Structures are given as C-alpha cells and as structure tokens.
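Sequence in, structure out. First:
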Amino acid sequence: MFVLPRLFCLVSSTDDLALLPALAGAGVEGFQVRDKSATTAELVDLTRVVLDAVAPYGARVVVNDRVDVALATGAAGVHLGADDLPVAAARRLAPDLLIGATCRDGEAVRRAAEEGASYAGFGPVARSGSKAGLPEPLGTRALGEAAGPLPLVAIGGVDAQVARAAREAGAHGVAVIAAVWRHPDPIAAAKELVRAVA
C-alpha cells in the first residue's frame, strides 16, 4: 500500500521539468502528471520523465485522468475527475493503485470511499487561476465538514497560508500548481509548502 503524500505538485509538459529532482529533494512527496492537451503517447513519455526524475527521491507519481497510462508507466496511482472512468471501475482494473477522486462536498467524499478511492481531492478551497470553469471556492470550513471518510487533499488556490489552514481544518495534505510553478523561486516555495503541511 502506498503512503499518501502530504504535498502534491501538479506537472505538465509546459513546466520546467529540469526542476523536478530539486523539488523532490526539497521534500515534495507527490507529483501529479496533468496535461490535458497531450496525446496518449505524449502523456506516457511525460509520465516516464517525471518518474525518472523523482523516483530516486522516494516521491510518488500519479497520473491525472488516465488509469491506462498509470498502469503502463508503473506510476503509483491515478487521480480521477467526475468525467473520467468511475472510481469503482478503476479499482477493479487496478486494485493496487493509489486512486484519488475529485470531490466538492461530503457526500461525494462518502461515495468515493464506498467505491474504493484511496483519497479525495477536495476543492477548490480558494480562488484559483489554474483551471477554467471551477465553482466558487469551497473554503476550509467545507473541507473540515467533509473530512472523515477519506484522507482529503486540498486543491485550488493553495499557497503556504492556505495549506496551513487546510491542514488545521482536517486535510491530510494539499496539491499545488501556481504556488510552485509561478513562484519566482519554485524550490524555496516548495520548501515553504513542505513546512506548511508537516
């Protein structure tokens, strides 16, 4: 069974992949490969690049949306959104994978737990500019109310301050994009986030 990271950093092909070993060395335990525009072959290649960069540091890699790519590359897991393969089907196909499910409320978290999810990605907890079409921020109170059936990974507008508040509200950990990749010093930002979720 895989240990669930406290800090996930999402990665796409447009990010500076040369920084991945330093991010893992700074204590980022999890990386989620998410590239909506990539072909299957490109996503496989990107996942392998990420795995090669961070696995020596003990970091885990999950693939966004694609159970097949996670299995093909030997990634630790997959993160599924509402329009992806249902969690129960993914669990039947991949009984040993870490499986995350995007959830927006406590009922969704309970359903995901019943279907075999390992954790729930809960959010957006704060305002995010990294993904279009998100609902209004749910806040840490909603996160606290949803905690219990599964470990929650807070996502959406997470910086170090939000990460601390999310952990205090009951989140197991957080997932970030802009807090690392849009920061002037991504490694320093990663270290601050690691401290925030400790």
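Second:
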Amino acid sequence: MSFNDFDGVVIPAAVEVPYSRQPGAGNTGDLLARAFGLLIEKSGLSPRQIDGLGVASFTLGPDHAIDLAWRLGLSPRWCMDDCHGGASGINLLQHAIRAIQHGDANAIALVSGDRFEAADFRQLVEHYNLTTRTWLRPLQNGGPNSVFAMLTQRHARCHGLTRSDYGAVCIAQRAWATQNPQAVYRTPMSLADYLEAPPVADPLGRFDCVPVVSGANAILLTRADLAAGVPTVRVRALQCLYNADHQEGDGLTTPLASISGELWRQAGFGAADVDVVSVYDDYPVMTLVQLCDLGFAPDGDLRALISRLGTRALAVNTSGGQLSAGQAGAAGGMHGLVEAITQLRGAAGERQVKSATRAVVSGYGMVEYRFGMCANAVVLERT
C-alpha cells in the first residue's frame, strides 16, 4: 500500500480539555462533552455536520458511545466504542478513516478521556481485566508499577543503563512540559530532583510513574472538501498489531518492532525524516523501547538516543508526555496524537518545533498481566 490509501480524509482540528489532578464536579460524560464542544468551536463546523462518533473511556460506563451521542444531540451514521487503552486513539483513527472513505460518514469526532476519583482509579487497576482481577489482585502486587518496575530492571541489565539514564528521559520531557501551559508538572526537574524522589517500586521513583489526572481529548476527521482553506493534517501511514507474543515475550520489544518496517515503507520515508515524535510513555522505559522499535536507535546505542532527547536533536513527547502532562485514563491513547497534530498545524506556542511537517505517533497498552497486548503507529503529515 502507499500513502494514497488514506487520501480524501483530513484532520482539521484536535483539542485537549486541560488535565487536572483534582477531578472537579460532574462526570466523565461531562468531560467528553467539553472536549466535543471545544472541537466544534475550533473546527467551525456545526454539530449537525458531525455524523460519526468514536469514544474511548474507562469510566464512562454504564454509558457508551451511543449514550454520549444522545447527550450531544447527535444522530450519527457511524458510532464506535473502543477499549484498547493506550492504543485506542490510533485504533479509532484507523476505523474512522475507512468509514469516511467508504461513505459511512462525512465528519467524525473521536473523543477520549476519564474522570478519576481515588476509588475510581483503584477500581480500574484492580479489575482491569479478568486475569488481573483473578490472579494479581489477590497478591496485592501494586498494579502496573510493580510490573513495569520488573521490566525496567530487565531492560537496564540488557542495555547497561542506570537510574540516571531513565531519569534523563523524564528530565527531557519535563523540559518540554515547562513550555506547555496545560501540563500538570511544569516545574523544571534536575537529576537530583529525580533521584531523590520517593521510591515507588525498585527502581521506579515518583517521576517514573505517570500522574493520574482527569481530562479529555478529541480529534475531528472529515472529507477533505469539507475542510477547504483550513490548515489540516493527513495520515501518511498506519499500522497495527495486537497480541503479537501471547504474553510469552520478555517485554523488551513491542509489536511496533514487527510493523515498523511496513510503516516506513508505506510512508515512503524513514524515522530520520520526521520532525516530531510522540510515543506512549506510561514509564520512561516504554519511551525507550518504542523509540527503538520504531527505528530511532538503529545502532542499538541507547545512551546516544537519550542524549538526543536531552539536546532536542530528536523532538519526543513535546507536550511533556504523560509523565509530565498527566495520564487521563483512556485519553492517554489520544494525547500524543493531539500533540503531534497541534505541532503540525503550527499551533504549539512556545514549544513549537520549527517547520514541523511530519510526525510519528505510537500507541501501546492493555496490559494483560505482564505486558501490553496492543501497539500501533501512525505517520502524519501537514497538508
């Protein structure tokens, strides 16, 4: 396939409801409705022109996409619920593109997000899936922090890395976050700050773990002719692979390693030719793993890769990533997409990457009991 397989569909708008450590009043549906309202305001379309809706959320239940459509006053011809966690944004994007290309809808709003009280987050972690509820919850294992602490230990031994190396990833992303007025962590961070932070699960400290927030994101896709005269972004390549190793691998690679070759072939250029990178960063180890899987360290030199992050020779997670901007549940799967689209539209303000025209975004998530089962990636280009 070539990039022409995505022709006829563009992205004219992407928004984020500011993340907050405090959940505030209302419910998850209210957050998603706010994101939809911002999207309509930014796009210039009327709600009546939106005939497709895709939704990803952990806490919207018992409501679903159709319930939200009713609340928003929509009568969609295409409607989709998604449950792919950190891979949900790109998964929704893939299906929405095909729906528009095949005439099932003309303008599709994709929304994702969650509102978390403390009890909501604990409920999510302990009942994430049947495997977690049955086998991990009785052990009181601490949820994903313990799982990714063990993965970080294995990764560090394999590549000869230290805590300071992972800290450098967090520090580089925090530097971007200081230029993002919507990030929840904006205070500059030194290596000493990182190393002295309270421990969570060896070798992870506080700043290795995403801050849980409430918030929402939204993206609009339309037929190209409906966005005439508006700066837009298009998809150049998109690849997905789920449950690649059946939980039998070592976690040091993701399914991205299997699909990256086809992703770049489909795009018509390589990793060295993109200006902005957004990878799913629930932990710094996952930032490095996905960057390697996507081809950003072809020689295997991770310390050289980390150095490029610190000097901004490689613009990665320019919002600050989830590690500094926050993880609003399922919105984490769309946060990197919104940031990349914002950069390509030249609307990132102080953190704008100069002359950004191409971006790659990855999704990763749905941890079974060891590692994430879902991974996908999309290459975007400014039209």
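Remark: The first strand starts at residue 9 and ends at 20.
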